[in-house]
What we know:
The protein has a 3-stranded antiparallel beta sheet. The chain contains 4 helices and 8 strands. The protein is an alpha+beta fold. The protein is globular, with a radius of gyration of 18 Å. The chain folds into 2 domains: 6-58, Luciferase, domain 3 (Roll), CATH 2.30.38; 60-157, ANL, C-terminal domain (GMP Synthetase, Chain A, domain 3), CATH 3.30.300.30. Strand 6 and strand 7 (97-106) form a beta hairpin.
Amino acid sequence: MRIGDHGEVLLRGPNVMAGYLDDPEATAKTIDAEGWLHTGDVGILDERGYLKITDRLKDMYISGGFNVYPAEIEQTLARLDGVAESAVIGVPDERMGEVGKAYIVRRAGADLSEDDVIAYAKKTLANFKVPRFVEFRDRLPYSAAGKVLKRQLREEIS
Length: 158
């Protein structure tokens, strides 16, 4: 991976597990033939060579041939006045393959519209990253570990 490029984080070395106990199928999905452990994380190397984890590979979607990392969009939307929380997923689109859909929880008393969200995103993000759909919710679904259940949001689309 070159500096400034996003990519999957892989690990290899004596400190990496040899595999899952009694589960060769899970081991084969996680550790490749050369011994690289596929973490499922996406990261970027900064100019000093430090790795920053930016997203999960399973959350990435492809829009018009470009890889889109929802965490970047969510961080941008968090700076929009009136947004308490957000989650972004890729949804099917005939022309682009997938496009973004943002689920937004408004701050109490905020008067925020779909047009406001999209206009803000257009000012701050590359066009292929701008969510094409916005849905407002009272709350987002969370796991017991406190992570947004994007799988559940995707299932609602299906």
